[in-house]
Amino acid sequence: MPAYRLRDLLAECVAAVPPSGSIDWVTYYFRDRRLAEELLRAHRRGVKVTVTLERHPRTAHANEAVIAMLSGPNGLSAGFRTLSLRRVPIPSGIMWKPHLHEKLYCFSHPVPLAFIGSFNPSGDGCEDDPAIIDEIGDQDRGHNVLIGLGDPILVERLVEHARWIHRAQCSIFHRFSAIANRAVQGEDTDIHFWPRIRSHPAVQFLLRLGTGARIRIAASHIKGSSVVKSIIRLARNGADVEILAEPTLRRVPVAAEQRLTQAGIPFRRITHPEGLPMHNKFVLAEKADQRWVIFGSFNWTMRSYWLNYEIGAISTNDQLFDAFAKRWEVLAARGD
Q: What percent of the chain stands above pLDDT 90?
């Protein structure tokens, strides 16, 4: 689609919500001041708006301009919250900082709709800071996706989740709660949340497919020994595994690539001539006459597996599978 289409889609959805409607957002990067102004206009016309934003993303000061707008005297008041999660010790003894990495955009009108996926409004148009874009990539023009969910059960629970994030303490003990480990079951799509104490739902699902399965992974991040081991385990479990990955070595190190290729897994990096990021995060799985697509905000990294707040979905929806399969073919044609 054209550049800026996903941010424009969100802007159109904001503009379509009437007074007394509601908008609930949770996102990691938010730097688009024009989009922030759309939310403020909605707030001023009587829409109930909540926005919860990661206070200190990896590029630590990236969100500051929008934070100033939404938290200022003419901002969203109690409708805006930034979240900075406490550091958590990991087995190696290092303290890792979890992030609010979800991308969730809920709208009450014209019909209830919730978007999840890989896109956060991290660009700021023609006035953007080149140094920040060099660091995080131009997400407005790079490979990204948003999936609009209209299933009433899923939308209701995602709105509840967004509002819970907005008001909750988000302690390190949340992962032990029933709500963190329970799937939301829709008509043809199940939603899962992180952090959790139970095993990774996508990995466990893929492992159950076993011999004869075809698994295609499009990943913006693959990092960490145990994460790479979990992908190799899928292949050793009898599945035919393929990977399309981001070209940035920080996000997908050479060591991870080498381990995967040595395990016999076809691996290609998606390099764009303008250096645009491949930020997609999805899996296509097939076995016999069954097909599934897995998508959301989660990465193939240790931080995403165990620490971050993430959303993932496993769907048997044929329309979604076909759309992602077509996208895979486009990406694969551009692979190194």
A: 82
